[in-house]
Write a structure and sequence with these properties.
Layout (H helix, E strand, L loop, with lengths): L5 E5 H14 L4 E5 L1 H5 L3 H7 L4 E4 L2 H9 L6 E3 L6 H10 L1 E5 L2 H10 L6 E5 L10 H10 L5 E5 L11 H10 L9 E2 L3 H6 L7 E2 L25 E13 L4 E2 L5 E2 L4 E6 L16 E4 L2 E6 L7 E4 L11 E5 L5 H7 L4 H6 L7 E4 L8
Parallel strand pairs: 1-18, 2-3, 2-9, 3-4, 4-5, 5-6, 6-7, 7-8
Antiparallel strand pairs: 1-10, 10-13, 10-17, 11-12, 13-16, 14-15, 14-17, 15-16
Helix pairs in contact: 4-5
The structure holds pyridoxal-5'-phosphate.
Length: 359
């Protein structure tokens, strides 16, 4: 009997979601964002599944792992390079770093690394990382012998009503010299929600994995298909009595005699510990309510609605028929965090691979 959880990663769904990006932003080149192990899906495998112009990661060591695995396409390192040694390593790996402060740009100028395209990251309103627009414009002049692009990150594009998204795009587009270099703006929410964010290059992440970037909706509403299905087996069924308390802290008290199911997955696998009573789990195609506290390796279900439940039966924690967005909302977080948080002990099973790897 299967006793442990696993995650299925559907490459056909990945390819479908990429096609959606192409449909929405037909004029853009795509950096598929595969930071954080491709949001928990497996960076090397996801890269092999996607026919794109390049990949974006947050950190240099993520880029290095892709190169070691044989990935040859362009790599954008979005998080900056913090020393001359890191810059030299980026050049050696053939990565295109984003540079977000004067010291980083200065090093590029000093190194004279003219074959290395760099992206000036401009702060247009997120106020996290980035050069001020005027500062970026000055650097564009000083770096005129280098291949340079302009990049910015959108702060509130997940709220289509927020005018800041359009303003951020216009701030980048209006920067002196912007018309002469490639622009790199849209994340998933920008791509889907704002025409001005569909720039020469775009950086879709979450939508490739089938999840909507917008608050209060799911990927299906954007014609996306969920890529990860997280499954775990039913490992015990207990007949409990009225008044019995379930699990740590005994937070759930049985209102009557009832069957309780134990599923072999917990927060040690990345299932959110804050999922409250009533969070749905799919068992035999039905939504069954979670009850009691999620433990490290297990969680418990109220089985009153599924008399046919049996040991070894496989439950779905999230996937196409149970959006991760819904579980995230119940647990007070976002789909990004749940996908990224699936831990290393959960094996990933890749299905529907393309017959020829793309790198
Ligand atoms: C993570 C990230 C993205 C991708 O964002 P999604 O919302 O997942 O599409 C794009 N750009 C930057 C700078 C990022 O850090």
């Amino acid at each position: 009997m299967i006793s442990a959880p696993w995650a299925t990663i559907d490459h056909a769904a990945l390819r479908h979601n990429l096609k959606r990006v192409r449909e929405v932003a037909p004029g853009s080149r795509i950096w598929a964002v595969i930071k954080a192990n491709a949001y928990g899906h497996g960076a090397v495998e996801v890269a092999r599944a996607l026919m794109v112009e390049g990949f974006a990661v947050a950190r240099l060591d993520e880029a290095q792992r892709l190169r070691v695995a044989g990935e040859r396409r362009p790599l954008l390192v979005m998080g900056g390079v913090y020393s001359a040694a890191a810059l030299a390593q980026a050049a050696e790996l053939g990565c295109e770093p984003a540079l977000h402060d004067a010291a980083q740009v200065h090093r590029v100028k000093q190194a004279g690394a003219r074959s290395l395209r760099v992206w000036l990251k401009v702060n247009t309103g997120m106020n996290r990382l980035g050069l001020a627009p005027e500062e970026a414009a000055r650097w564009l002049v000083r770096l005129r012998d280098h291949p340079v692009g302009l990049m910015t990150h959108l702060a509130n594009a997940d709220d289509p009503a927020d005018p800041l998204t359009e303003i951020q795009c216009q701030r980048l587009r209006a920067l002196p010299g912007a018309d002469a270099c490639p622009l790199n703006i849209g994340n998933s929410a920008g791509i889907l929600g704002c025409a001005a964010a569909r720039s020469d290059w775009v950086r879709p992440g979450i939508m490739l994995y089938g999840v909507s970037p917008f608050l209060g909706e799911t990927g299906v509403q954007r014609s996306l298909r969920s890529v990860m299905t997280l499954r775990a087996p039913l490992i015990a069924i207990n007949q409990c009595q009225s008044g019995d308390r379930i699990g740590y802290g005994g937070s759930y008290i049985c209102p009557e005699a009832m069957p309780i199911g134990v599923i072999g997955i917990g927060y040690g696998d990345g299932y959110p510990r804050h999922a409250p009573d009533g969070t749905p789990v799919l068992l035999g195609g039905r939504r069954v309510p979670l009850i009691g506290r999620v433990s490290m390796d297990m969680l418990t279900l109220d089985l009153r609605s599924v008399p046919t439940a049996h040991l070894g039966q496989v439950a779905v924690l999230w996937g196409q028929d149970l959006p991760v967005e819904e579980i995230a909302a119940a647990a007070g977080t976002i789909g990004y965090e749940l996908l990224t948080g699936v831990t290393a002990r959960v094996p990933r099973e890749h299905i529907n691979r393309s017959p020829t790897p793309l790198n």
